[in-house]
Specification:
344 residues, homodimer, 17% strand, 11-stranded mixed beta sheet, alpha/beta
């Protein structure tokens, strides 16, 4: 059995989407056991709509719910909230393997650091989504928003975290790592990028292929793209916006004439396959990488499918032994020997 | 007559694409007069392929061509090169209204600053592409790569430059300005973003709507998005990459079955309209904003259509009185009074 804990009250569509997602996940993976935190009455009301294996789901009643607008540093003190209670259980119970929440990103990051804790040696956890790429696989973007300001030691650790995730979560043997920059030449970017470039070039266990541009996230050769949380967030949101616009224009053009409507009837399956290939939500959100156990932060607007994908991804990451892989890689990378400024 | 000077040797496809683009532009705009700089023999050989109004085109023979790999600071000294010769003529001849090049971005920026010169009071020029948006118009992204490191005074000036360009180039009466950030809340981002937010909120003549995210460039409400050149470049390239991937997957899915191929026959026109609406190259590249005359930097890989679009855009910007608009707005914004650090 793999036990995953789910913040059943997190996200705009909770508890409907979280409960429906939980039921879907249980149906797909018979090895899965779920712990749902949240208002018991609300959760049970939703659960009544579905048939599911009751022996693999339990509820932990939590009266409090953290709102998207609550201050993360205040929220972290609310032990009775569905999110923080989930973190406390994740920390205390050895047999709980991972967590999923669609709640506040800020509170998820702060709770992860203060309650669950980081992997020994890791300075800061990073948010890491899996983005569909032109090779039919995914590119891991670390960080996409947990750390607006970064130092080179953090970026180098993101390379370690991303490499371990690519191995443990996606079975990539030697993940190629690129540094997100405003050009591919070695000297490009600000002093932070130039310093990080040098250290990454010398790091053991990291297959660093050099600077990459924004277009390379989806079109390039690398499996892991290292970025500070500020520009990583801008890259991710820019791609999401563009994808949404292209699909929106396609839809409106299809509707604009009889001929194209007929064409749509023949092309429906192809367009559905296209959407599936380009789905940013295939893995249900971003992994909060660097904590002692895998935590998946789903979109606030997550639907049942996204929640189910997040749960499946958390289980798959646990099965892939992510945390030991990070620890091992961090040791072999031996950042101390590369004269990296270790100040926090 | 509007006289535009064209670096006929700039770009991967020169002089074929530049000459063909010049001929297309002359055909479309009967008020246009073009000066082409470059190797006279090469240019004449290309020109022979077309019929065009010879009374509206002249060639200035320049034996030297700047390569994409040449150091910009070295390149700027080569007065006999097609790019720098164009800059010198643009500076000296009052009747030349603007310039187009598909050559080296670095050399174009350095040449612009050192030869042509900046508008009085402007600290740094910025690269500004016009990006298609969900409102059927364009969003201007300033800066997208000329300045990897920025101070708040520069970002505030980018707001002035973008506002003037939106008015003069696209007839938008009160352009809405957003600050590119990793979230929309006021406190978001690093100290640079927080400081810039405050100043933009108080600036006269700028309709500042607050922080915007990467997705808002294509989906949002603002006409101008202000960014440092590093994150602006990453946003632009990320969107380009995503657009390319979506269209690529669409193409391969269409080819993948007989049914979808039939669908394509009915949908061909709709897909063509879609492509036209999403064309990043409709205005032929990025305007180098902040110089004494409009300079358009076309993509290195520009085809004849892009070059023609760039020329048409340069003429249109001149007709819209961009430079006086920048000067006026800069004066009314009165950055000196807003206690902005003016150090360079």
């Amino acid at each position: 059995m793999i036990k995953i804990i789910l913040d059943a009250m997190g996200g705009d569509n909770a508890p409907y989407a979280t409960v429906a997602g939980a039921v879907q996940a249980l149906e797909k993976d018979k090895q899965l056991y779920l712990v749902l935190t949240g208002r018991q009455g609300d959760i049970e009301r939703e659960l009544k709509k579905y048939k599911y294996d009751k022996s693999r789901l339990e509820i932990v009643d939590c009266p409090d719910v953290i709102d998207m607008n609550d201050s993360p540093t205040e929220a972290v003190k609310r032990r009775q909230s569905s999110l923080m209670a989930a973190y406390w259980l994740l920390k205390k119970e050895d047999d709980i393997c991972g967590m999923v929440t669609a709640g506040s990103t800020g509170a998820t990051i702060v709770g992860g650091q203060l309650i669950l804790g980081r992997i020994r040696g890791i300075k800061r956890p990073a948010l890491c989504p899996a983005i569909p790429n032109s090779r039919g696989g995914v590119t891991l973007l670390v960080d996409c928003g947990a750390n607006a300001e970064c130092k080179s030691i953090m970026l180098c650790q993101f390379a370690v975290l991303g490499t371990a995730y690519a191995k443990a979560g996606f079975g990539i043997k030697t993940p190629k790592v690129g540094l997100l920059n405003n050009g591919t030449e070695e000297h490009k970017g600000d002093p932070l990028r130039q310093e990080t470039y040098k250290i990454l070039s010398e790091m053991k266990g990291i297959d660093f292929i050099g600077n990459v541009e924004g277009r390379d996230i989806m079109l390039g050769e690398c499996d892991v793209v290292v970025a500070d949380g500020f520009s990583g967030n801008i890259a991710l949101k820019s791609m999401e916006g563009c994808g949404k616009l292209v699909l929106g224009v396609l839809k409106s053009e299809i509707k604009s004439s009889l001929s194209s409507k007929i064409g749509y009837l023949f092309m429906r399956k192809a367009l559905k396959r296209m959407r599936a290939k380009l789905d940013f939500d295939k893995y249900g959100g971003a992994l909060l990488l660097g904590l002692k156990k895998p935590v998946i932060k789903s979109h606030g607007s997550s639907k049942p499918e996204s929640v189910a994908n997040s749960i499946a991804n958390a289980a798959s990451i646990y099965r892939g032994n992510l945390i030991p892989a990070v620890e091992e890689l961090l040791q072999s990378a031996d950042l101390d020997s590369l004269s990296v400024n270790q100040d926090d």
